[in-house]
Amino acid sequence: MTNNFVFETDMAAKKIYISREFNAPVEKVWRAWTEPTLLEKWIAPKPWRAETRTWDFSIGGVWLYAMVGTEGQRHWVYAEFTAIKNEEAISTTGKFCDGEGNPLANGPASYRDTKFLNIDGNRTKVDQVILFEEESTIKMFAEGGFKQGTEASLGNLDELLEMDRV
Amino acid sequence: MRRDVFQAVADPTRRAILTLLIVQAMTPNALAEHFDSSRQAVSKHIKILTECEVVTQKQTGREIYYHVVPEKMKEIDIWMEQFRKMWEDRFNQLDNLLEEL
After folding, report:
1. Which residue of B has its CA nearest to A13?
2. What ipTM was reported for this prediction?
3. Which of A32, B20, B56, B71 is the most buried (most CB within 10 A)?
4. What is this structure's pTM?
């Protein structure tokens, strides 16, 4: 079954659009997106793992977690909830953190809107739009995500190679 | 200061310059005519683009022409592809989790 994965970047608009369908009802997808113990199971691309330090799922509340690498290196990810509509939508503001996980007061922010759409009662479509502030766009890409992206790809390449051997 | 392809496209004027140069190579004068900002400001951006190695200059007769370096621009696509892959991996992990819930 196709999952209709879409990943579109619009550099000029400083925007990324990500969409995906899941073979589960919206209640389950919502849980996987809003319970930290479940989030930790999928949010970190291998070989990274996610470790939540702060979780407050309310308007103005914060989810602070670390992407922990195989050698113990940490990338902190900070998201403040700015809108929550149960089983429908979540908005967050992302900020850069220092090495200790403290958000940088004057650092650039990113804004993320995630929508959960019910398809026929047992499937769910998730639409996500991430907007970056001018300066943060490229910095976030080049410094934050780059290492994660690269290492994730390599980790999964290993996995693919393993599978080939079987 | 960092000089790479990401720095090159981090600014709207530089993106506009690149868009013009992708269509055709241009002289500094021709390029500056497309912008309201001062010639100095435009040439500062061109300098950064050159340092980022996304733009190169070639002498043709008495004129200097700026050209885009397409191989360098491709680095952005490569990086985007990695970012895309990261999300794909996450979502595959989420598929597995949803089966267990």
Report:
1. B12
2. 0.79
3. A32
4. 0.74
CA atoms within 13 A on the CB side of A162: 6
Residue in chain B lying closest to A23 (CA): B95
Q: What is the pLDDT of residues A7-31, one digit of tens each?
A: 988 776 778 899 999 999 999 999 9
| pLDDT at res. A100 | 84
- Tell me whether A153 touches chain B (CB under 8 Å): yes
Q: Do A152 and B12 touch (CB under 8 A)?
A: no
**Could you tell me if A45 and A67 are in contact, meaning their C-beta atoms sit under 8 angstroms apart?**
no
Buried-state track B16-45, b at ≥16 Cβ within 10 A, e below 16: bbbebbeeebbebeebbeeeeeeeeebeeb
CATH number at residue A99: 3.30.530.20
Q: What is the pLDDT of residues B43-100, one digit of tens each?
A: 999 999 999 999 999 998 999 999 999 888 887 777 778 778 888 999 999 999 999 9
Domain boundaries, chain B: 5-100
Tell me, what DSSP letter sits at residue B80? Answer: H
Domain B5-100 sits in CATH 3.40.50.620: no
CB contact under 8 A, A31 and B9: no
| Residues of chain B with C-beta less than 8 angstroms from the C-beta of A137 | 10
Q: Does A20 contact B at CB distance below 8 Å?
A: yes
According to the model, what pLDDT value does residue A148 have? 47
Enclosing domain of residue A33: 6-165
